[in-house]
Amino acid sequence: MKGVELYGRVRHAVQIEGLSHREAARRFGIDPRTVRKMMMFSVPPGYRRSKLAVRPKLDPFVGIIDRILDKDSRRLVN
Predict the structure, then answer these.
(1) What is the CATH code for 4-47+54-77?
(2) What is the domain partition of the chain in residue ranges?
(3) Is the pTM value of this prediction over 0.70?
């Protein structure tokens, strides 16, 4: 993952200095597609999952756990 400092420098070069994505990529030694992605977000977006995590052992019990936690939280309030 690219550092926040590099992220800011690339965005400054493109937005303020007027460099093209290709020129910025050359200057900073990164791929032009990376420059394009950096320009889409004002801060690095971080890791994003493409699909939900699979929990084959836990999923059947999630409803039971939620009910237990709900009952427990209501008991503490009363």
Answers:
(1) 1.10.10
(2) 4-47+54-77
(3) no
